[in-house]
Amino acid sequence: MGRTIDALQIRHEIGGIGAIWYREWKVFLREKSRIVASAVNPILWLLVFGGGLGRSVSIPGTDYQAFIYPGILAQAVLFSSIFFGVYIVWDRKIDFLKEVLVAPISRTSVFIGKVVGGATDSVVQSVILLVLGVVLSRFGMIPGLHPTVTGFGAALLILALTTASLVSVGLILGAWMESPEGFQLVSSFLLFPTFFFSGALFPLDRLPSWLAPLVRLDPLTYSVDALRHVILGTAHFALGLDLAVMVGFTVVVIAVGSVAFQRMKV
Amino acid sequence: MAIIEIDHLTKRFDDIVAVDDLTLEIADGEFFGLLGPNGAGKSTTLLMLTTLVRPTSGTARVNGFDLVRQAGQVRRSIGIVFQDPSSDDTLTGYENLKLHGMLYGMPPALREQRIVEVLELVDLTNRKDSIVKHYSGGMRRRLELARGLMHRPKVLFLDEPTLGLDPQSRDHIWAYVERLVREENITVVLTTHYMEEADRLCSRLAIIDHGKIVALDSPANLKLVLGGDVVSLGVGKGEPNLDAVKALGFVDKIERRNGIVQLTVRDARDRLPQILQAIGEVKSIEVRPASLDDVFMHYTGREMRESSAEGGWAERSMHYRSATR
Ligand SMILES: Nc1ncnc2c1ncn2[C@@H]1O[C@H](COP(=O)(O)OP(=O)(O)O)[C@@H](O)[C@H]1O
Ligand SMILES: [Mg+2]
Question: Which chain A residues in 42-101 lie under 8 Å from chain B, judged by CB atoms?
């Protein structure tokens, strides 16, 4: 008897996660401008910043533009994932959040549904950026980048894991902040250091001694490094270390996020 | 049989007591009203009964389940229409209902069937594929009403269902609520600060002020407490003979303010000649049955209209729409 009830409850929880995901997906599809915008900025970074600086900077073994391509992918996912957290603040501003929280599913499921919803958005964005990477390199606009199916496929998996953790961070922030303005403020304090310290724009060898520990503390560093492994075939840390840190970080933030949702006020 | 048993329920926010030691039973099948001015603690009571806000002390059982210890089962037993808009205005009406059905674990076939039924009930069938952003306030309210009913709850909570709506939409909502009570056969708990609403819909009501129940009965009995009719006599700056009116013996209550003398009288129409004779010269006469407003005044010494500010629902929905998601 107990077992059948548990099975039913688990089915309901999975259905609830699906419901939250359904809503986020519908909203995402309805805001096409968001999808376009999410691809434009990274391409500008890659072509303008990378192309402009690439003439005067040389990275051993590859061109600068190809070198920052993995970092730009990580950056795009960083920004869209964290910003996804602001939607929970909007949901709370009207009573939509109450409608979700009064439903007979656990708050952990609400959190997981949100993570899956936000991660889906970032994965779509990643696919667009990976395809653009292939197209642009065909036209010789990213010298030094040689896309392979396995490399880019692995990159997508790494980006999916990265966004799962970063969406969780954004949601933790969203569960905690009461106004969208507050969210913007706090998230920008979080975003820029995370981006700059991740080594998205520079190699990790020969760092000044004050910078090296900060880079190692930044969780995004390991995503960028793993992406370099699979896209460029060369990186700083061992791929195993990168993946272990990423998985560990994801587990921690999902646990923290689930607690943050339990405590969240309506 | 009581479907809701509220037992010394209390909620404190910092220094204010929003709900103060509330004890109350609501029977299965009742249409129960919580009537009180803004800030009386109506919404807080509903949020506690729907497990969204944790009581400071006390508890309640809904459909036999304890609010705190069996929150999941309580949530499975209830539906609610919140005071502020709670549908996603980037989705269509249909999508909002589908989302709801998924959240409540309804099997797809049943879900689709219920969506058709409840859309029909609130007359939104032909607008189901419009995005909610393009709905009027009244339509959005009806959609949320349909949604609250969709999973066939045992108890439906309605938090100020007509707040911020124009009189015509308000009338529509009342008609829908009456219809659904007839057709769906459920217990309804409604909060409002509109007397007409409480009077028209509720079989029993609690008048609450500052988080406490000040009166509890059917609207008709509550009004009987006042002894019938209210007679307002315009006397201007004149000198009405109030002692003579008092001496008549059948006037329950006499009040004078702003040039108006207000009397509470049983069978006022028959007794009006005697009253007019006693009081002396008057400039205007108005006789009406006692309203719940008079009842509220009787118990609290204040007028409900004075202590209720409008706004809220419509205002906040405007605010949300102007912001981009
Ligand atoms: N989250 C909250 N924090 C602090 N005070 C609150 C909160 N919610 C409600 N209150 C206060 O509790 C009292 C009752 O509010 P509420 O239940 O919304 O009244 P009503 O619905 O009858 O208008 C009000 O004084 C209100 O300001
Ligand atoms: Mg209220």
Answer: 87, 90, 93-96, 98-101
Q: What domains lie within chain B, and their CATH numbers?
A: 2-222 (3.40.50.300), 227-289 (3.30.70)
pLDDT in tens, B98-154: 999 999 999 999 999 999 999 998 999 999 999 999 999 999 999 999 999 999 999
User: In sequence order, what are the beta bridge partners of B263?
Assistant: B231, B254
Question: ipTM, 2 decimals?
Answer: 0.91
Which numbered ligand comes closest to the C-alpha of A178?
Answer: 1
Name the least confident of A31-45, A110-124, A208-222: A31-45
Beta strand B187-192 with B31-35 is: parallel
Outline where DSSP puts E strands in chain B. Answer: 2-13, 16-27, 31-35, 57-62, 65-66, 78-81, 155-159, 187-192, 204-209, 212-217, 229-234, 251-257, 260-265, 284-289
For chain A, the domains span 2-263
Contacts of A180 in chain B (CB under 8 A): 323
Backbone angles phi, psi at A211, to 5 degrees: -85, -35
Our CA-based measurement puts residue A187 at a distance from the nearest CA of chain B, in whole angstroms, of 17
Q: What's the mean pLDDT in A228-246? A: 95
- Asked if A103 has any chain B CB less than 8 Å from its own CB, the reply is yes
Chain B residues with CB-CB distance to A15 below 8 A: 102-103, 105
User: Which parts of chain B sit beneath pLDDT 50?
Assistant: 308-325
Which residue, by CA, sits nearest to atom 12 of ligand 1?
B18
